[in-house]
Design a protein that fits this description.
The chain is mainly β. The chain is 7% helix and 48% strand. It contains 7 helices and 52 strands. The strands form 11 sheets. It has a 22-stranded antiparallel β-barrel.
Length: 1008
Amino acid sequence: MNITLPKSNWTVSSYKQKLHSLEKLILLSFLMLFLSTAAFAQTVVKGIVYDSDKSPIPGATIQIAGTNTRTQSDIEGKFSISVPSPTSKLIFSFVGMETQTVSVNNQTTLNVTLLSSNNLDAVVVVGYGSVKKSDLTGAATTVSAKDFNKGPLNAPDQLIQGKVAGVQMINNSGQPGGASTVRIRGNSAITGTGQPLYVVDGVALDGRSARPSTSAGIGTAPDGNPLNFINPADIESMEILKDASATAIYGSRAAYGVVLITTKRGKSGDTKIDISASAGVGSISKKVDVLSGDEYRAALAKYNLANGNFGTSVDALDEVLRTAYNQNYSVGISGGSNGNTFRASLGYQDQQGIIKSTDFKKYSAGFNGNFKFLESKKLGLDINMISNQYLESIAPITTDAGFTGSLISQALSWNPTQSFYNPDGSLFIDYGSTTINPLAALAANSDKAKVSTILGSVSPYYKITPWLEYRMLASVNYSNGNRRASTRSFLNLQGIQPDGNFLGGYASYSNTELITQQFTNTLNFNKEIATKLNLNAIVGYEYSNFINKGTINTATGFGDIASDYTDSFQTTAPANRTFSAFNNPTTELQSYFARAIFNYDSKYILTATFRADGSTKFGKTNRYGYFPSFAAAWDIKKEAFMKDAAWIDQLKLRVGYGKTGNQDFPSGSAQQRYDYGNANGAPTLVAINNANPNLKWQSDKQTNVGVDFGFLGNKLTGSVDYFNKETNDLLFPQISFVPAVGGNVPTWVNLPGQIINKGVELSLSANVIEKDNMSWNVSGNATFIKNKVQNINGIIKTGSLNGQGLSGVTTEVIQNGLPLFAMVTRQYNGLDANGFSLYTDDGFTNYYVGNPNPKVIMGFSTNFRYKKFSLTANLNGAFGQSIYNNTANSVLAISNLGTRNVSSALVSLPVQESLANPIAASSRYIEKGDYVKLANATINYNIGNVGKAIKSLNIYVNGQNLFVITNYTGFDPEVNVNKSVSGVPSAGIDYTAYPTARTFNFGVNFSL
């Protein structure tokens, strides 16, 4: 059938609809394909960033390779980022960690472990800047916060004890907040402290404490730690610079090494709050063996002594000791965005001493901000501030107490059969006797110090080009300390107890003010200047000045008044008061410095450093000192002939030589200095030191050869260094034989001769187990060192001894051919048949019989983790050194028997020692100081997140000074009482020091 349609009515509308539908279908298909591609582009990759101990890393940067898209991990190390394709690569990085690139490979979950300080891309802080670890040519070691010693520590130097090869850190005593001794590559100081230079966020510290040294009239009190103002919880890392290549940029203050302290910074991201809290308990770690009451009575019977038994049994040391409690709290708030970050912190520490009435309280606050300006972000500003106040209650313990002793000697020597109290309950005080009741000494004493410190700096910078940056730093370090000390008149001490018209009692009130200003300008250059040749250079100018002033007030004759003596100076007779003030000459230091690091093909590295320092401390003809250094490194692993040695991951040879200086001596020492006095009502001038316009810088020349290595995928890493350090032009206060005008005062001179320290350092670290649920890392270091004095004329005596029978006696010398501070005294050969000491040459000749400098120092650490549990332990030790036991020599001698206590060892000798055997210095009291100490151990349990608010909750138990292996009979072989003579330091002498505490602490930390 044929159908004809009119042309005017002809239509294909049904086909048009189908065509439109097909077009829509095709468009929809393309749209779906596009959306599916776009959907993959928005695929989210999530994961966690860990360190080698499987602890989360907050603030790690995760960047999509080839783009500017990046994010950061949160407080739990978690991250989330969208990737554009299944072949995308993510770059994971964090300061101090190895940068790692990981392919996505269609994965939506990536957990990444970053290796820490052993890697070659880690950024290492050096003087006035930072470099990659692979670019280092000098001997430098980084200790990060996760590797610090744990527990209620007072100062930053305690964080690194036993952690670094070549570094010996000694707590001089167990006093909370007490001074420490830090030696880097041996001892070479014949004046001053011999301590390293500490630099906090680019600001060099003065090295002195504002805590006044005056005490309560019973002798010289031990020093405090000048680093107490820094809260250890605010420290991110510490960099120890050991050889001249690393330290020469600090020139005249770098002879004893440099420690760079970097405080924690804020990171971009949400504002977070980090909280830590701990509490603990401590008690004496070891006692000195003296006789108990029953043993004392037996000794009296053995010696046929009728007197001395008072019928009771007491333990005097126990009576002055206590179980001590401590608590520590720290809060940090940080955050930021768009390159502008901040961190603010608060800290509180309350540490009781194990001696009654002693404690240490610290309040700290800090702030740092890092800000960038302009659309280009080329202009920046860094702000840092540390504020701190600490309060000390100090025990009546001195470094130079005479035969009447101070608190520890009084407790050790107290007759254990005699009560501390009268029948009516009052304290027993034996007036007319030199025996002091230790409880009365505690009751009579009040010694309180307060030190307030503010360290602030501002550092604007401008990035002129991507490879050129100008930076300025201006800082002020202000510290003010005051000390109120008194001894009440009821104590039976000469000069303290009433006598005729003298009412008795003593008080001192003193104040010290320290101010340091620093202005630094630097220009940094970092650019590839030729094919494969990169230059990292810095030039700079720095000006610093140092101010030290204060007052000292003393008074006697208060009598039995109700108020604190230090509030009542006006009650004493004017003739019984003294008032003095001091304002040392302001020291100015002007410096020019430069450093250039040439890196060719990441295989051959050359570093050259130069610094010129001009100081007002020195004579006009030698005001400037010049300190160059040169070093080279060869990365052998990157050579073609090493490419098949797959088991070797790192092999670098380092060689360096340089010169550094020392100006650790009093300001104005090159000038003719006078002090004001008064005689017969008229002002007078009293000479302090004579002028020496030719006085010049003491200098250290040091050679270093080292090898860094890593094997088996860096499971085993380490370094070996040989060093030879020679100290010349030794600064020394020489007393002339002919009295100078106004008295026999010193003239500071440069002595001929050298102090030589040479040795070998070895550091090893091994990742024994590396699994998701288990890891085990061990690390250790050892230093073998020799010390020698050569080409010095004459003998310099130091190491004063104190106590009964030892007035004016010294036992250490600086002498040609011997170690520094060699112990030279009588050579003891036992007792004769009558119980008297036998000496070589009948004691008329002194012999070299002891060396206080260790031949070997070591440290060992281990960290074991199983799932959420971890155990960290840190040991340190020293071998080959001698300790002179001044306490045994003068406090616990057998001649005390019948009146005072004696050492337990003396009553069981093969030959009975005579009670008439004179007290004398000799090798009898020189003991081996070898020890190994488990200084720190911590058990952690990482609970993780609790609810939506609490993040990374961790609880731990920590122990300090858990045990020590030693044959030393004193409280602790880790001791160094200041027994200097005329400004010449000593080493390795123990005299009634504050005992060491063993502490156990429970703590918690978490984030919000």
